[in-house]
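Try this one yourself first.
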């Protein structure tokens, strides 16, 4: 009966030829027309909890992969793209049931035991882990590719330069970077535009590494880095000409969105410009349970309209919005490729489960930014109206 249910679901999936090996060694092909070859093979090392697998596929598939109940051979991204493109099979219809639940009902299958609760988090790795597979900037956010041949390192630098051009920095202005990472943006801004920059981070190691780079670049007094929360700066009454945040807004939390913009308004001078570079999605909802459990325990990915809705409530006026969706698909694909090159090193230190978790996350991200509504936008806005800004985007590409 378990195989019959699996076959019924697999036969309903469209758009990719694939193979399946069941727990008893039997092999089957699905979606393969004459002469086509399977893009990947799903291997069941043991009989899974079928009800959980298809009732909550995103979470249950991820857990089954981490626990080595399921393996994947071949194009892992093609499998994840297939699941995303066929997600309507697992959505509830007007009866409140999805395809799998209807199949269960029609076959009068006995319910499976409820799976045991999985641990609510995996431990977070230290910075040395990221240094193994990110580029030398250690940027863990969407890069900007001008061509398909650009290296990840070039694309991350191009992302910084694009942001700084959008901010229209002028010598002597003050710049705040909320969530400054390893300081690449504030250092670049000071060197290229002559601004006085402050970067804030919640990581002491990032603060120490950035401070060292500031000294090496001879920028002491022009660039500062602090371990601080943006809310602390708002309370202190600090004001800046320009404010930027790259990849940190997903940590603000849905309940704090209005508070974030309220703090931003306090810190940005009237007429000042701010740029937000952030992941977003078409509609509101909770973060994926699998992501919340393993990767972003405190995260919330807002919808684009949630962000846009908040701007005028705080006297912010949107000037420019640019989607970098395909750029993030390329960025995460680069990360996934780099990750596989050092997977053995990571496995030796952190174990197989940890490798599988990060592999699924990175490849899943790349698939999601191709096949789902997940997006990244750069939003440029001003505090109050401005009538003196460029009429076109020409200044960005000179």
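Now uncover the answer:
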């Amino acid at each position: 009966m378990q195989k019959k249910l699996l076959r019924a679901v697999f036969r309903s999936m469209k758009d990719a030829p694939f193979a399946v090996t069941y727990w008893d060694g039997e092999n089957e092909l699905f979606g393969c027309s004459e002469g086509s070859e399977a893009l990947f093979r799903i291997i069941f090392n043991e009989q899974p909890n079928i009800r959980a697998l298809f009732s909550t596929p995103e979470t249950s598939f991820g857990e089954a992969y981490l626990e080595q109940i399921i393996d994947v051979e071949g194009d892992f991204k093609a499998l994840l793209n297939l699941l995303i493109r066929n997600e309507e099979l697992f959505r509830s219809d007007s009866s409140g049931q999805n395809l799998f639940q209807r199949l269960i009902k029609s076959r009068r299958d006995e319910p499976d035991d409820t799976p045991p609760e999985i641990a609510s988090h995996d431990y977070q790795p230290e910075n040395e882990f990221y240094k193994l597979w990110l580029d030398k900037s250690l940027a863990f956010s969407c890069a900007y590719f001008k061509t398909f041949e650009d290296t990840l390192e070039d694309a991350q630098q191009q992302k910084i330069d694009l942001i700084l051009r959008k901010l229209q920095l002028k010598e002597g202005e003050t710049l705040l970077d909320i969530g400054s990472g390893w300081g690449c943006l504030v250092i670049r801004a000071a060197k290229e535009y002559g601004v006085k920059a402050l970067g804030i981070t919640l990581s002491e190691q990032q603060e120490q590494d950035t401070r060292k780079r500031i000294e090496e670049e001879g920028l002491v007094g022009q660039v500062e880095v602090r371990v601080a929360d943006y809310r602390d700066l708002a309370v202190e009454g600090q004001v800046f000409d320009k404010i930027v945040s790259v990849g940190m807004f997903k940590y603000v939390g849905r309940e704090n969105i209005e508070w974030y913009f309220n703090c931003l308004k306090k810190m940005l001078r009237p007429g000042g410009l701010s740029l937000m570079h952030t992941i977003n999605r078409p509609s509101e909802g909770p973060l994926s349970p699998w992501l919340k459990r393993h990767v972003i325990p405190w995260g919330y990915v807002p919808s684009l309209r949630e962000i846009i809705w908040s701007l005028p409530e705080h006297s912010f006026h949107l000037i420019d919005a640019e989607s970098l969706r395909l750029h993030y698909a390329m960025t995460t694909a680069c990360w996934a490729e780099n990750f596989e090159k050092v997977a053995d090193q990571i496995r030796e230190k952190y174990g197989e489960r940890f490798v599988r978790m990060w592999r699924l996350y990175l490849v899943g991200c790349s698939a999601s930014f191709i096949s789902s509504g997940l997006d990244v936008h750069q939003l440029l806005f001003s505090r109050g109206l401005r009538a003196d800004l460029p009429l076109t985007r020409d200044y960005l590409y000179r």
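Discussion: Residues 103-123 have pLDDT under 50 and may be disordered. Residues 88 and 98 are 8 Å apart (CA to CA).
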